[in-house]
Each structure stands twice: as C-alpha cells, then as structure tokens.
Design goal:
The complex is a heterodimer of chains A (448) and B (210). Chain A is α+β, with helices and mostly antiparallel strands and 448 residues long. An 8-stranded antiparallel β-barrel of chain A has the order 7-8-9-10-15-14-13-12. In chain A, strands 17, 18, 20, 21, 22 and 24 form a 6-stranded antiparallel beta sheet that branches. In chain A, strand 12 and strand 13 form a beta hairpin. Chain A is rod-shaped and about 120 Å long. Chain B has 210 residues and is mostly beta strands. In chain B, strands 7-8-9-10-15-14-13-12 form an 8-stranded antiparallel beta barrel. A 3-stranded antiparallel beta sheet of chain B has the order 3-4-5, with no helix packed on it. Chain B starts with a strand and ends in an 11-residue tail after the last helix. The model of chain B has no long low-confidence stretch (mean pLDDT 90). Classes of the chains: A alpha+beta (448), B mainly beta (210).
C-alpha cells in the first residue's frame, strides 16, 4: 500500500440527501454541503445543512405557501454558466401599511458558487454579490461603482416570510434586513445590512422573463411584468436619444438642401412695374396686360409675384393671370392687400400689410405676361401699386414643414420616455421629487 | 522543486514533500500530523476526520495566477457560524508561496505581508480604514472561526488551534486583506479576488451529475 504515495484522488462528490428530523421526509442537499441551511419542503423545518444529524433550527408555519415560479432542481445557463435552482425565499416589505413581497432564488454551480435571481411582479433580476466596495457616503446619496453612478431608489426593512431549499447563510423566517437599492437601469446595486453585522453589496441586472424561461427550459410562459420596475431599462430611453440624433441629422440634411437650393436658385427679378388704380373710375373693366418677360433656363422653377400697394385704411384686390405666350398655359390667382390702422382706448393698432407675395411652384421656362384686374371700394381716390416678378425664387417653407414633421416623433417618444421614468420613480422613496428625478435621469441618460 | 522522501514515524508510509520549505505535513494514511525538524519527522498530533467539504479544489490541483502556475500542497479548514472555508496553501513554479482561499466557491489569492505596526484585534472594528501598500482598505467583517482540520504541507506548524479571529477588509478595487489573529502577533495577508475561470484550474474534483 505504500507504493501509491500521497497522490490519492479524492472521489467524486456525490449528492447527499437526509431524512428530515422533523417529519422524516427526504431532503436533498443539492449544494454538496456548500449551503449553510436547508429547509424541509414538507414540514418547513430549517436544518443545518453542514450537520445532517441536525437539530431543527427553526420550524415555521407557512401561513401562505409560496410556490417558486422556477422549481427547485431546475437547471439553466446564465451568462454561459450552468446553474441549478437550490433555494427560494419570499421577502416582504411594508410601505404605508401595504405589504409588498418578492421572490429570491438561490442558484448554485459547484465550481462557480452561488448566484441569485429575484422576481417582483414579473420583473426579474440576475444578482451576484460584489467583491469591490462601491463608493458611498450617505445612505440616500448616489453610489459610485466602477465609474457608474447609481441613484438611491429606496431603503426598506425586508422580512423573510417563506423559505424552502438551501441557503448559503443562516436563514430564518421573520428575520429582517435593511435593504437599500440604487439604480442605473438596467442595473441595480443593493446593500443589505443585518443589525450591526456585515454589509453585503450585490449587483443585479434586469432580466427578461422570456429569456429566463428559455434558459431554464420551463414550460409555459413567464408571468407578464406589471408596471415599471426600479431598474427596468426604459424601452424608450435609447430610442429617444437615438431619435433625437436621427432627427438632428435629418434636419441638418434638410438645411443643407435648403442652402444648396438657395445658392443654386437664380432669384432673378424679371419684371417690375408700378401702376395707379383710380378707385372711382366708372369704367367697368379695369383689366390690362403687362409687357412680356422671359423665364430662362431649362427647368421649371418657382416664381414669386410680389405686390406692394399704398393702401391706407382701405383694400385692393388683384386678380392675376400669369400667361405663357407660347403655350397659352395660364396660372390664375387673386391677392388681397389691405392695411387698416387707428387708435383706441388700448392705444394704436394696425391690421393687414401693404405688402403681399405669392409663390407659384414649378413654372416652366418661356415668354410670359401678366393680366391684372384690380378691384377696390368705389370711392374717390387712387391706389398705387407695384408688381414685381422674381424667377427661380428660393423656396424655404418646405424646410420648416420637414423640420416640424421630423420633430413630431422625437417629441412624442421623449414624452413617453419621461412618462416611463415618472412611473419608475413613483414607486421610490423620492416620489415627491419625481419630476426632478425624471428630468435628471433623462438628461444623464443611460450608459449605453 | 525537489521531492524529498521520508517515512512517517507513526506508520512508515512514505512522505513526499512537494515544497522544500514545508514545516508541517499530514500523513495521508494514518492522518498523523508531522512536523519537520532538522533531520527527521516528529508526530505532534492526529487529524480527526475532515468535515465534509465540497470545494472543487484538492491537494495537487494546479492553476494559474498572473503569469505563474501553482500547485496546491496543503490546506487549513476553518468553520464559523455561516459555514466553512478552506485556505489552500499554494506553491508557485518560482518557489513563492501563497494562499488560495475558497469560501463557498468565492476565490481569493493572497500573500503574507511583512508590515509592522498592524492594528490590534480590539482596534480593527467594522468601518475602520487602513492603508497598506498604497491601497485603502475598510474593515467589512470580523469572524470568529474555529480551526477544523489540516491537510498536506504547510509553511508553519498549525495543528493545536482552537478559536481564531479574522478581520476581513475590502477596497474599492479587487484588492482585499485579512488580518489573522491566530498568533500573538497579527499577520496581514493581502490579495485579490479572482474568478474561477481565471484560475484555469486543472485536476479539480468532480461532482455527481455536473
């Protein structure tokens, strides 16, 4: 026997099970003894997992039995590592007389150790203990961890109300810990303080229930999440930032097109002429035609017809027809120019304008003239007016329309994103300063 | 590393030292605790059955830390109210020795420091800050543990202990420190938390159905 030397292989570690000293039921130890406590699923006796001969550490009567959504013994891969669900506890807090409770799952891998899942109203988190201390000064202050700022969400007293399976710590029903959560969606930093003892920090990351169901090959569907959870990533915050970027880019593009168009437009005055209109002239028909003018170039272009009239507490209406001498094509349009002013108890006032302009889009090149027919009130007087025709006028209003249309989805999504943040912070200790939180979380954005 | 072979003064089984500076070892056959003097081995005690343990590490497990590979040559087992942990004595290929601790599969590698004026057990309270090797550490836990067994080669005599106080300290980085009050003079260990995958362990234990 001396030949084998000291290099003796330790045999494979086998799964143990024990008989519950409370009820005799078989209790499986899935953690190979890494757990500290194991809870009998039949009689709810909390046992020492280290010493299976075990006295009962605590026996609790489960007034309400909580069934873990992921059964003990389920295995699945989380972030590349296989884990088995070995324990489950239900914790409860009381806020303004209302009780809220959530589930915590203990996961185990014999090489990688323990990991946790939490579930509240269909919202899941993948939680791992921290090995690095976060930077924090006050409980409600922000916490800095690895360059990321986490905002305080809430601090509460969480009591364990139900346990089953194995735990790597001494677990007791009724025991309370002070839990503080700090969020930077999709992550949450939590500190747990037990009396004057250890402070333990953990980092959770929001997990989609569907992914979890797939990872653990669970039947059916996960419960649908209710409301907005503290570290739930806003489906809109990334979109919202993205859409503003896209929107800004598109507006810049439109602006560029606008500038290019303005530069390339000839913007040439091809005709300008002043006329007098004798308003009391009894002749029925006042229409006349102008001298012809030419629109040069190869393409159709916008034409602006500008009218300046010295209307003085009266009006003039001009029936225009822009006629193409070559083709006979006619553009008919009427313009009213009116300007009234005066003084009353509120001071001086004015209405209307002495200037009017209209743009006719896409007028083909060619020889043109204007037929003009002025109208006004039949009373003695004269209205002088000047008609100016500008060819290939740079048109800008489409730019404003485009910018406005581009802003609509951006504003809509930002508004919805703010609403999401509002719902998130409504559940926090800082709900009164909700708007401040919403604005600051929008402005600081996420880290991705 | 030269293996020097002796024989157990109790049962006569061959005793091989994997590390020349080992002071103590345990006979794998009769569980005698053997202390090395100048010429021979002296039996100073006997190890009771080791408590059940599910560490994936065992004597002869090999791994890597930084650029150096190491082999596990011994361990001390401690227990406290929240369970137990192992301090695996590791020896590097450059002759350096250190400790790989495994507490519920949380791994840390540390080295004994030669730093004077360490705080006394009474002073090192929760929340106290200390600076060693340019790193600021905060006391995060005090543990009253009891010695639960030894295995393999150790750099010192360690076999008649009872209760031991450990003060654990953490930093804002991956550095951690432990003040060991098992002797009159405290000993400081400073090291880093390390991921299982980064240790690249070989010759680990096997677990049923994993």
């Amino acid at each position: 026997m001396a030949e084998t030397g000291p290099k003796k292989e330790v045999p494979t570690v086998i799964v143990r099970s024990l008989s519950c000293p409370g009820c005799g039921a078989t209790v499986t130890i899935r953690s190979f003894g890494q757990a500290v406590n194991v809870v009998c699923g039949s009689c709810h006796s909390i046992l020492d997992a280290q010493d299976p001969n075990v006295q009962i550490l605590q026996k609790f009567s489960a007034a309400m039995k909580f069934q873990p959504l992921i059964p003990l013994g389920s295995r699945g891969k989380l972030r590349g590592t296989a884990y088995e669900v070995i324990g489950f506890q239900r914790r409860q807090i009381t806020v303004d007389g209302d009780k809220y409770s959530w589930g915590e799952y203990v996961l185990f891998n014999p090489y990688k150790g323990f990991r946790y899942l939490t579930e509240y109203d269909g919202h899941w988190n993948d939680v791992a203990p921290l090995r690095t201390l976060p930077n924090t000064t006050v409980v409600t202050g922000p916490v800095n961890y690895l360059g990321q700022t986490y905002k305080h969400f809430q601090t509460c007293q969480a009591a364990t109300v139900f346990v089953i399976g194995e735990f790597p710590w001494q677990v007791r029903v009724g025991e309370t810990v002070t839990v503080s959560d700090y969020v930077a969606p999709p992550r949450v930093l939590s500190s747990e303080t037990t009396g004057d003892k250890e402070v333990t920090w953990s980092l959770g990351e929001y997990l989609n229930g569907g992914e979890l169901w797939k990872a653990f090959s669970l039947p059916g569907k996960p419960p649908a999440p209710i409301g907005v959870y503290e570290n739930q990533p806003s489906p809109l915050s990334a979109t919202s930032r993205g859409i503003w970027r896209t929107c800004a880019l598109l507006i810049m593009g439109a602006l560029l097109l606008y500038v290019v168009n303005a530069v390339l437009s000839k913007d040439k005055t091809v005709f300008t002429q002043s006329y007098n209109f004798y308003t009391n002239d009894p002749v029925g028909e006042h229409s006349f035609v102008t001298e012809p003018f030419e629109f040069t170039g190869a393409r159709a272009a916008p034409v602006r017809v500008e009218t300046n009239a010295d209307v003085d507490n009266n009006w003039i209406y001009l029936n225009y027809a822009l006629v193409n001498e070559d083709s006979g094509q006619t553009y008919d349009f009427g313009r009213e120019i009116s300007y009234y002013y005066g003084r009353d108890s509120d001071g001086s006032w004015s209405e209307g304008s002495r200037r009017d302009s209209v743009i006719i889009p896409s007028v083909p090149p060619g020889h043109y003239f204007l037929r003009i027919e002025p109208e006004s009130e039949r009373k003695p007087g004269v209205i002088s007016y000047t008609v100016t025709v500008t060819h290939d006028y740079p048109v800008g209003y489409w730019f404003l329309i485009a910018a406005g249309m581009l802003l609509v989805p951006a504003i809509l999504i930002t508004w919805r994103s703010m609403n999401f943040e509002h719902l998130r912070w409504q559940e926090s200790d800082h709900s009164r300063s909700g708007l401040v939180s919403v604005l600051s979380s929008i402005s600081s954005g996420g880290d991705e | 590393m030269t293996e020097r072979t002796s024989f157990c003064p109790n049962c006569g089984a061959p005793i091989a030292f994997r590390w020349s500076s080992s002071v103590q070892t345990v006979c794998t056959y009769c569980k005698s605790i053997l202390v090395r003097s100048d010429v021979d081995l002296k039996k100073v005690g006997e190890v009771a059955d080791l408590p059940p343990d599910a560490s994936p590490i065992q004597i002869n497990t090999e791994g890597t830390y930084g650029n150096h590979s190491f082999v596990v040559v011994g361990r001390i087992i401690y227990q406290y109210e929240q369970g137990g942990w192992n301090e695996w004595h590791i020896v590097f290929n450059d002759g350096k020795e250190g400790w790989l601790s495994d507490a519920q599969d949380e791994y840390m590698i540390s080295f004994a420091q030669n730093i004077p004026n360490l705080p006394s057990q009474q002073d090192a309270n929760l929340g106290r800050n200390y600076q060693w090797n340019g790193v600021q550490f905060t006391v995060t836990s005090r543990t009253l543990a009891h010695y639960a067994g030894v295995e393999g080669e150790l750099p010192f005599q360690y076999w008649d202990k009872q209760d031991v106080v450990f003060v654990d300290l953490r930093s804002h980085g991956s550095d951690f420190a432990t003040l060991d009050y098992s002797d009159e003079k405290p000993v400081l260990y400073v090291g880093k938390a390390i991921d299982f995958d980064d240790l690249r362990l070989m010759n680990t234990r096997k677990f049923e159905s994993w």
